[in-house]
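Incident log, structure service

09:12 report received: a user says their structure output differs between two submissions of the same chain.
09:20 pulled the input from the user's history:
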Amino acid sequence: MMAEFLSVASMTYAHPGWDGPGHGDGPGWWLIFPVLFWLVVLSAVGYLAWRRSPAQQARSAGERTLAERYARGEITEDELRLRRGVLRRR
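09:34 re-ran on a clean worker, output below:
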């Protein structure tokens, strides 16, 4: 039963097109490409807006300050991890 279905499907959809099998290349990627393009564009805009949000910028500044204090030896590695975890939870 499955073999019959696959053979009929392969003959029917061997060359999909608007006018039936064998009459052109069909719609192809031009149906999917605009959707993918706008999905990428909107995702990039959303990511940039998120990165420029005040909360994200404050978190980045706080993590930089912690890294500098750790580099100067003012805090230990455990303190760095603990404080970074607190910053990332907000």
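09:41 both user submissions now match this output. Likely a transient worker issue. Closing.
09:42 reviewer note: The mean pLDDT is 80. The longest helix spans residues 33-51.
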